[in-house]
Amino acid sequence: MKTExxxxxxxxxxxxxxxxxxVKLATKFKSTVKVKNLAGGKExxxxxxxMLLTLALAQGTEIQISAxxxxxxxxxxxxxxxxxxxxxxx
Amino acid sequence: MKSRRLAGVPVSEGFAIGRxxxxxxxxxxxxxxxxxxxxxxxxxxxxxxxxxxxxxELEAHIAAFAQAGTNQAExxxxxxQLLQDPSLSEEAVRKIQEEQFSCExxxxxxxxxxxxxxxxxxxxxxxxxxADLKDVRDRILRCCAGRPERTLSxxxxxxxxxxxxxxxxxxxxxxxxxxxxxxxEIGGATSHTAILARTAGIPAVLGVPGALEAAENARSLIxxxxxxxxxxxxxxxxxxxxxxxxxxxxxxxxxxxxxLSRPGATADGTPIETKLNLGxxxxxxxxxxxxxxxxxxxxxxxxxxxxxxxxxxxxxFRAYAEILEAFQDRPVTLRxxxxxxxxxxxxxxxxxxxxxxxxxxxLRLCLEREDLFVTQLRAAYxxxxxxxxxxxxxxxxSLEDFRRAKEVCRKVQAQLAGxxxxxxxxxxxxxxxxxxxxxxMADAAARETDFASIGTNDLxxxxxxxxxxxxxxxxxYRMTDPGLLRLIAHVAQAYARxxxxxxxxxxxxxxxxxxxxxxxxxxxxxxxxxxxxxxxxRAVSESNLAVLEAxxxxxxx
Lengths: 90, 557
Hints:
heterodimer; A: alpha+beta; 3 helices; globular; B: eight-stranded mixed β-sheet; eight-stranded parallel β-sheet; 22 helices; 16 strands
């Protein structure tokens, strides 16, 4: 299992389009991928858009991305990089 | 057939007269079905099949829109992502297999759980997603029943659309050239139906209870998006009146459109900037907004008057962000809270003053109540990354006022930087010129401020010593008072000398005749209400600068 912690940078947080992009990317990987809101401790399936929305990840929230499977390293790295890029809004 | 007039919320401009098209999609309520344990495998298979059919429908829509080259496909992309969400499909199948619910009931309950969570928040983004979830749910349910999709693309002739509500996928398929007007029973100014109506320029009145029943018994309909009414089976007199109003509106739209789409300049080629005064987020999506050179005045008071309490930073941020995005790289000038005087706020207990216009209002109030000021500035700076923001302070009487305001801006920027919250560091800071003392010091102000906007409504009041709300002294409140005009000319020259921009955002700028006078006095930038943009651009294009300057010189002689 691989994990990485990142902070949500973009102003609208992980809602709407950024959430969509995040899930689209997560779904590409074979591993199971999870996202945890480090503030509340709630963890959900990163491939589920509705579950991601319920996390209500606002700007500034610290999240932990974890993956388990054959491509777990690439999954975590790619998803963390996407979050760090601010989804083109920063 | 008796004529019936129902009232509602007008969410776009114009009028429509014509035949009715009632749109009554599947009536979706919770289906109550249970199955026997032996049937669960078969029932789960039914769900998988329905999901597959729904996916095909969505993929067909996406393909159709891709060919048409529009980005309406985004809605269907989002719906497809929801449809394929593992949490939703796994839960639906689980409900079938473990709780013996029918396919339809399992789908309903699964989606409803998430819809309920999303509706718990006030966040409009979440509520839109709830609407999307309902749309996808209804699609799957229809596919379970094997019923074909009923879409608005069935419309083949010009009609006025009447429905209880329109789902996002409905509006995406709406044939814009055939739908002359829209009336729905629910919905308001910020719904996606309203957004579509404004973007497509379709007269629409929403929130009209009983519209469907009236529509089903009527033959023709008038949509009045000026007053907010739907008139079913109008009698001859009413029909004639509206026919002429419609003709007039179409003519004005046409005429204005010719000028709206041209850049503003005098006949001899002097460029004149023409911008908008905005008083709501909805204004940012109007027809005029698409053609204006920017926003010369974003009045922010509406945010404070809309809700029962004070608008928090998030609420303000979302409003500013939406407006900045609508204007892209055209500048948006945000005026900080201008409350007090005649503009009262129920949620702020402000002490009664003898002379509210000369009292603790606008910037003075913000400097006194720094908590309010900081919240607004934080929201503004955070939103600055979404477009080209400028900030302007109202009721600045001296450069000391301006410096104090700038200091708070610096504080807010340092705060945001410390948090790692992004903002643009090139946000220009300017002042309203409405207090005579700063108008007289225009040369010094022009050196220190980045820009200014003359608030002629209040400047006239202070200069002529006449309350603009007091009918008894209306003859003394003259926008053509020579003293006022000399002062405007003085400000225009002072800013021109420093090479800094100055505009006029008071009512004078919205009047074609007075706008020409302002240009003659040296003003090269005007900010006005949307309805006047076309008329003012037209008046400007028919003017010659030398002539305007001579006429203005005579007035201040």
